[in-house]
Amino acid sequence: MNQPLLKQYNEKDIVELLKNNVHLVYVDTGSEEVVARYEDLPDIIVDINDKLGYVVDLKVYDYQNPSSNPILTTFGPFLNKCDPKVREDIIDRLVKLQQEEESVKDYKVIDEDMLEDVRNSLNNEMER
After folding, report:
1. pLDDT at 3 over 70
2. Are strands 59-62 and 24-28 parallel, antiparallel or unpaired?
3. Does 120 fall in a domain?
């Protein structure tokens, strides 16, 4: 996944996301990882496969509660394995996007290194 293909949050936006406790997820394409808002998952699943023009199998992990088990995996733009709660949250929009009943919304992703830098500086501020 070429980073320029996906719009990215800047540091100020990342600070706001963290301060507002926005639900974040790791999205692993097999070659790169980014962090994104949980609510953007359906759009990300479809958009990455559309932009790259080939099947991209994603593994998605909960950022707040990381474990070795993904909360969902895909086969291209389709769900492979998925936590039942996550499926319930995303399935309606995902199906509409897959059937082209809706268009992919404008979303951004977070560079993992930048996110860690922002988190560390926020933690340092709180310790003072």
Report:
1. no
2. antiparallel
3. no
In this structure, is residue 78 part of a structural domain?
A: yes
Q: Per-residue pLDDT tens for 11-40?
A: 999 999 999 999 999 999 888 889 999 999
For residue 53, the tally of other CB atoms under 10 A from its CB is 7
Query: How do residues 66-125 score in pLDDT, each as one tens digit?
Result: 788 999 999 999 999 999 999 999 999 999 999 999 999 999 999 988 999 998 888 887
Would you state the structure tokens that stand for residue 94, as one six-digit string?
């995902």
Q: How far apart are CA 79 and CA 46, in angstroms?
A: 10
What residues make up the domain containing 15? 3-112
DSSP 8-class letter at 106: P
Residue 127 lies inside a defined structural domain of this protein:
no
Is 117 inside a domain boundary? Answer: no
User: What is the residue whose two structure tokens read 């809706």?
Assistant: 102
Tokens encoding 18: 């963290």
Query: How many separate domains does the chain show?
Result: 1
Answer whether 23's CB lies under 8 Å from 39's CB: yes
Compute the chain's Rg from CA coordinates.
Answer: 15
